[in-house]
Amino acid sequence: MQVEKYKIEELNHQELAEHKRKLDFVSHNLPWLDDVMSKLQAFNVAIPSWALGTGGTRFGRFSGGGEPRSLEEKIEDVGVINALNKSSNSISLHIPWDIPDNAPAIKALAAQLGLHFDAVNSNTFQDQPNQKHSYKFGSLHLVDNAVRKQAIEHNIEVIKYGVQLDSKALSVWLSDGSNFPGQLNFRQAFQNTLESLQEIYTTLPDDWKMWIEYKPFEPNFYSTTIGDWGQSLLLANKLGAKASTLVDLGHHLPNTNIEQIVSLLLMEGKLAGFHFNDSKYGDDDLTVGSINPYQLFLIFNELVEGMDARGMTHATDIGWMIDASHNVKDPIEDLLQSVQAIKIAYAQALIVDKSALKSAQQNNDVTLAQEILQQAYRTDVRPLVAQASLLSGGALSPVNAYRNLQVRENLIKERGLKTVATGL
Ligand code: LRH
Ligand code: MN
Fold it and tell me: If you measure from the C-alpha of residue 400 to the centroid of ligand 1, how many angstroms do you get, rounded to a whole number?
């Protein structure tokens, strides 16, 4: 299904007067408005190929209907998202859930929809049919050399698929770990992982990156071999300049100060990018900004400050991606809401009065520092995000437009109610 541009313009026309009034209000005392608008327009968030169907838990999965049955239909759905918000112009594939059998055709379809391919993700946390060696006890960290070798070859194969699609990064998340004390020699497991990643690293094309994602628990519940940012950074530093640490917001123990981790990884030039989502308890993979939008703002505040300090280009110098799972929401609506929440947090961070904050920090004026920060957080920047979408040819309110255009109803007519997408 494709969304016609004229239909979006018709909907925008109905909302324009109200939008203009709100935009004038938020813009009138924003000295750096043009800079904010150009940065917002340039900012895109990649869509994970594994999150275009309904997610589930071990207790059940409740399909919403019209789910994509193939990689081609997943690319079409990302095309719909990008047509509505003009902020999701790339898709990240997970191998083998989304093997591009005919890469040139897949690339052509994506290009036709204004899309390109972000990082490719390997998968050594599941056993595939007729796989020679099982990953039951792990993959790259395992004592068994044959299993490590199989996992290394899989990652090298994933890079090959990525090269065919002009992707520029291999994203590695390892579920490797242990469920009981005594099960694992931690140092041996870490060393095996390092040597295995080094073998993969040597096969990376010159302009490629290796992103190392950490996670404290699940599916292992006693130890995870790459369990926190320290272990990921240790590996990235030992591997080399192409390796860096990927931050999945849901991969932190309760009350972890994620924005502090982000600021230090940026300072070290070892922040690969993000898997954005939200959570209240564990790796809940909920809609971005649905539980803790203030934390998301604080993370973007560190990102803007840290990236400007290094002269980095916000939109392109690190990887921006969603990693969520939709158990009760329409997958496309959930992803549209997540991209909105990310752009709102980014816009709030862009309007922080940084020089005033700096002098408050210099004077240890703690109260004033908070006032300055929360002035930005409590500013309704949604008209700025809507204006950026409008200027880029998108919808003023992507979720309203999605519903108004009855996209899901049409997808169900086209694909049926019972279709199941590959992924989590
Ligand atoms: C692990 C994870 C990882 C993916 C998977 C789909 O929890 O965040 O990024 O490979 O989800
Ligand atoms: Mn993730």
Answer: 29
Residues 6+ apart with CB under 8 A from 304: 314, 346, 349, 350, 352
In tens, the pLDDT along 43-53 reads 999 999 999 99
Atom of ligand 1 nearest to the CA of 283: 7
List, as one string, the DSSP characters of 168-235: -EEEEE---EESSTTS--HHHHHHHHHHHHHHHHTTS-TT-EEEEE--SSSS-SSEETT-SHHHHHHH
Q: Do residues 242 and 202 lie in contact, with contact meaning Cβ atoms separated by under 8 Å?
A: no
Average pLDDT of the chain?
97
Question: What is the pLDDT averaged over residues 221-248?
Answer: 98
Burial class (CB in 10 A: 0-12, 13-18, 19+), 253: exposed
Q: If you ran DSSP here, which 8-state letter would residue 49 be given?
A: G
Ligand 2 centroid from CA 234, angstroms: 19
Q: How far is the CA of 230 from the centre of ligand 1 (A)?
A: 18
424 Cα nearest atom in ligand 1? 6
As a whole number of angstroms, the distance between CA 361 and CA 371 comes to: 12
In our burial notation (b when 16+ CB lie closer than 10 A, e otherwise), range 211-230 reads bbbbbbbeebeebbbbbbbe
pLDDT digit string, tens, across residues 281-320: 999 999 999 999 999 999 999 999 999 999 999 999 999 9
In short, whether 124's Cβ falls inside 6 Å of ligand 1 is: no
The answer to whether the CB of 424 is under 6 A from ligand 1 is yes
Q: If you measure from the C-alpha of residue 277 to the centroid of ligand 1, how many angstroms do you get, rounded to a whole number?
A: 11
**Across-strand partners of 171?**
121, 211
Dihedral in degrees, nearest 10, Cα atoms 12, 13, 18, 23: 60
Q: Which of 122, 176, 213 to mutate to test the pocket of ligand 1 (most atoms within 8 A of CB)?
A: 213
173 lines ligand 1 (CB under 6 A): yes
At 72-103, the pLDDT tens digits run 999 999 999 999 999 999 999 999 999 999 99
Nearest CA to ligand 1 atom 1: 173
Could you tell me which of 53, 97, 83, 7 has the C-alpha nearest to residue 332? 53
